Structures are given as C-alpha cells and as structure tokens.
Amino acid sequence: MLHRKTVFICGTAAIALLCAAQAAAQTATAYPSRAVRIVIPYPPGGGNDIIGRIVADELGKRLGQQMVVDNRSGGSTAIGAENVARSAPDGYSLLITSHTTYALLPNLRPRLSYDPQRDFEPVSLLATQSFALAVHPSLPATTVKQIIALAKSRPGQMSFASAGAGTGTHFSGEQFKVLAGLDILHVPYKGGNPAITSVLSGETTMTFGSLSALSAFVTTKKLRVIAVTGAKRSPLDPKIPTIAESGLKDYEMTPWYGLTAPRGTSTAIVDRLNTAVVAVTQSREAQERMMKVGYEPEGSTPRQLAEHIKAELARYAKLIKAIGFKEE
Q1: Helices and strands counted in the chain (H then E)
Q2: Which among 111, 213, 240, 315 is least surrounded, fewest beta carbons within 10 Å?
Q3: Nearest to residue 56, comparing CAs of 43, 72, 39?
C-alpha cells in the first residue's frame, strides 16, 4: 500500500514538473506578447544610450515587439538599476548598462540599493570599447616603454587628463600608474573633450580617450596615439598595439555594456532574449552602427556575462584599494 502511494506521489510530482516545463516553454514561445521596456540609466545622447538604442531597434525587429527605451538617469546609474532590480521578473523590464553599474559602484558604495550578482539575471554582453593612450606629438616618446622611462625620469612632473574622477578614462590612467609604478598627476576634467583639449594645449601630458574622439586629431597629427587599453587590438584600427603587448604586462581596461533582467526571470525567457541579442551583435547592420561610433559588438552566453561581472568586481576592488579612491 505504501509502495503504491509512493509511486502515485512520484508520478504526480513528475507530471507537475512536466507541466511546469511545458508552461515555461509556452511562455517563452509567446514572449514577448507586448512592448518591452528597456531601462538605460543614463541621459539621452551618451555612449550607453547609443548602444541601448541600437540594441533596442534591432532586438524589436527580431522579437516582433516594440522595445520602449526608458532613460532613468541619476545616482551614477544606481536609480535605473534599482528600478529594474525591483521590477517583475517577467521579461518586460530589462536593463542595458555598463561596467559602472555592475563593477564600479558596488565597490564604492557599501550601502548600494542593489546587488549586481544577486538582483539580476545576466542575458548577454553587448559591446566593448577600447580607450587609447594619446600624447602631444612634441613628447619625446613613441612607445609605452618610452613613456614609462620618461615618467620615471621626471617623477611628479608628468600628468594625465581624464573625463572626470571615477570615469573609465580616470581608472585607465590609474591602472597605468599602478602597474608601471609611476608618479604621474591625475587631472580630472568635465568630459572627454576638455581632457583632449588639455593635451592639445600642453596643460597635461597625456590622456586616455575613445579612438573615435581622438581620430580627427590623430589624422591632423595634433595628437599621437601610443596604444589601446583593451586586451586585444581594436578592429577600429588594428595597427595600434595594446598597452599589455607594448610592455606593461597584465594591463587591461575595457569599458563594456551588458543586458540583464530582474532576478527570477525564467531561464526560457533569458535564453530567448540571449539568442536574439547574440544575433543582433552578429548582424552587419548593428555592427556597422556600433563601430561607427567607436564600439565593438560582442555577444556572450548568460554564464559568460555572469563570470565577467564577477571578475570585473574583483578587478575594480583591487584597483580602488590600491589607489585609495573614494567617491566624492
């Protein structure tokens, strides 16, 4: 009797699991049945917004539904991130944002309103961007090794300009200083263009900026690009070496952008989104649009994005501790 009861219970459980699996599959097949909100935690016009709108346009075509971009800026991306983290895990609220949200802020704010690993379901990487180390042509250095040697011969006399404290260009310079053991002054500006202008005028020695922003000055020979900050050469200009291959081992600073959903979003929906997003990053149209504004399309699996977030959290934690940086 007990045996029959156990068999009945097990059979019932198996049927329940099968029904749940079928329901999830049907939900994913039907998804999306209405417009999807994509939160971008930056104001319109910036790099994150550009990437987000390109992905939203192309994703809408593949999923057959409107992707509604919702710019929720504020709190250095925390406001928009928290909004999605607290949204229903049904696939109709998504977050497109950068390393700032997932790796930088969690290391700067102990009481952050969201947890990058606990509160989101990773979907896919979207794009990366390499900064470039640029100097004035009058500087007697044309390689990374020569810049390091020159800086060591002039402790405290050289400087690097950034787009502001806590930005990717700031941490690119700090990583350079730490790994090379240099005494170089950081000069923050309010934006990338003023930072570039400071090198052009001789106020600062060097800067780290996007290749697209630097290209016009490199073409006219008003600036010299030495190397790029990424782990690999940029397809925007493959002739430029990376800082790591130029002699500064282990150097890498690659801003990146990713798509996530609220924690608890079903695996079936995440997988459907991932398939569509990877197709977007591999499409000629999206690649051309992204590369035109200086970004490199790059899709991934959800697991790869999860591992990337974990690694970036650890890397920024180490750098922030080394330089003693605190958010103002």
Answers
A1: 12, 11
A2: 111
A3: 39
Q: What CATH number should be reported for the domain holding residue 159?
A: 3.40.190.10
> Does 19 fall in a domain?
no
| Residue-range definition of the domain harbouring residue 308 | 35-128+255-323
Q: What does DSSP assign to residue 205?
A: S
Same domain, 92 and 151: no
Under 8 Å between Cβ of 35 and 6: no
Q: With contact defined as beta carbons under 8 Å apart, do 161 and 199 qualify? A: yes
pLDDT in tens, 69-84: 999 999 999 999 999 9
Residues 136 and 121 placed together within one structural domain of the fold: no
Q: Give the orientation angle of helix 267-282 with respect to helix 302-323, to 10 degrees.
A: 80
Is the same domain home to 115 and 146?
no
Total domain count, the chain: 2
Q: pLDDT higher for 235 or 243?
A: 243
CA distances from 112 to 82, 109, 256 (A): 9, 5, 21
Run of H or E residues at 160: strand 159-162
HSE-up of 197 (CA within 13 Å, CB side)? 8
Residue 259 shares a structural domain with residue 222: no
